[in-house]
Amino acid sequence: MKGQRIKAAWRGQADCSGCAIRDLALFADLMEQDFNLIHLPIEEEVLPAGRVIYNAGDPGRALFTVRSGLVKLVQYLADGTQRIVRLLRAGDTVGLEAILSQPYAHTAVVLHPALVCKIPREVVERLSVETPRLHHQLMQRWSEAVNRADRWLTALSTGSARARVARLLLLLAEAAEVGENSAAPPECALFSREDIGAMLGVTTETASRTIAEFRRQGVISENRSNLFACDMEALRAIAGE
Amino acid sequence: MKGQRIKAAWRGQADCSGCAIRDLALFADLMEQDFNLIHLPIEEEVLPAGRVIYNAGDPGRALFTVRSGLVKLVQYLADGTQRIVRLLRAGDTVGLEAILSQPYAHTAVVLHPALVCKIPREVVERLSVETPRLHHQLMQRWSEAVNRADRWLTALSTGSARARVARLLLLLAEAAEVGENSAAPPECALFSREDIGAMLGVTTETASRTIAEFRRQGVISENRSNLFACDMEALRAIAGE
DNA sequence: CGTTGTTTTGATCCGCGTCAAAATGAGTGG
DNA sequence: CCACTCATTTTGACGCGGATCAAAACAACG
């Protein structure tokens, strides 16, 4: 088994049944026998920051499970500006629409270096016919996507710029906090001010100014480049207007 | 058949196989035999404007198909203010999360008097096990919900208040335009300025002011109370900043 | 060490939020 | 039918937040 995993990794091909994050992933509920139905290779890919996974409008030939790192979903507006509509982390599924034979609805771009599993559409289609266990997971994923979209709107596109930035920091810090040593103040890795602006619906300058202000006030402090320690209490106070 | 439908309507119980909007609805792909699997009553309900269909947090015991009218999904924020995250029309499904045994994620409220079919969770669960035809429809519905959520964000929560209002009017008018006599300028039925504000993330006053301005400029004109004829070209120009 | 892209900061202006008051409309009871 | 209340809409005046334009400050890289 161990040998199998190493070999699989070596040729860039995943061993799903032995996956370390399977309980988080799309295939969480599958039984051993189900894996025999996978007859197409599921490839593991190492993706550097900035890499485009797919473009909006591309035919959806595969969906992706994020194993580590961070991915953004971008929607381009009529006037050419872009808006980030979702962030995806370990365990999340990117490009679900592929299983409906639809073109991708967004452009997916890597924000923090990521490891993803590329699952051909046909694999999910086949499993989808054979086992109801996958169905439930798929529904859960869709429902989760809707919830995230709605929360994105209410949390990150509502209220003052200060509050929005605070909520974004909380979101990132709380995600990083999971499985962290509890005593130390939670950290969160930020990204370009332009991206932050595109997430919050504000300009790059406003994003920069607000973060600078938080730093001066001691609400956050930069440990390494773009890695901030967050005073959660203070942020929560700001987030709630 | 005709007699059956009338009888069904009379006791408030739907005959899905003979439904006039079935091709739009969740049960579009079902075959005759599938309907025999429905052993619980599907009730038709006539709902006046303002009626709450369910509240956020309620256990999801049923989902609803909108046959006519308009329904809003509302999300309440921490500070008590509310934000409207989606509008649902004829053919749309409300409360999909019920089939995942989850509590409702939003509060659903009738905006324009509506006719809805209340489908018990168990009916969908049962059908879901028996026929893959429903699966596909469910996925489509979920995917459509995500798309709507994303477009809502980019179209109605981005740009100036003028542009947002224009886009909302376009959205409503284009929906009404379907199956309309093409020559006449499309009309759209508006609702309270407060709701408009909650949809666009602006204040009631700004919503009112913007609509008043559009009226003065002749971009829209009020035929009846809250029923506006729209100059689509002019609106499109404003919508694109 | 210059070149290029990102971040920060500054100065200015306008859109929109805020508070307040008038105008309009719907419903109720005398 | 009119007077009165109450809710919604419209309009006004004002101030602030954030967009915009522009220029430094900085960081990355050849």
Automatic annotation (TrEMBL), chains A, B:
Domain HTH crp-type residue range list: 159-233
One MF annotation (Gene Ontology) recorded for this entry: DNA-binding transcription factor activity
GO CC annotation, single: cytosol
PROSITE patterns per the UniProt record, alphabetical: CNMP_BINDING_3 (PS50042), HTH_CRP_2 (PS51063)
Key words, A-Z: DNA-binding, Kinase, Transcription, Transcription regulation, Transferase
Keyword set includes DNA-binding: yes
Domain Cyclic nucleotide-binding: 26-145
InterPro entries associated with the record: cNMP-bd_dom, cNMP-bd_dom_sf, Env_Response_Regulators, HTH_CRP, RmlC-like_jellyroll, WH-like_DNA-bd_sf, WH_DNA-bd_sf
Lineage top rank: taxon: Bacteria
CDD domains in the cross-refs: CAP_ED (cd00038)
Protein name: cAMP-binding domain of CRP or a regulatory subunit of cAMP-dependent protein kinases
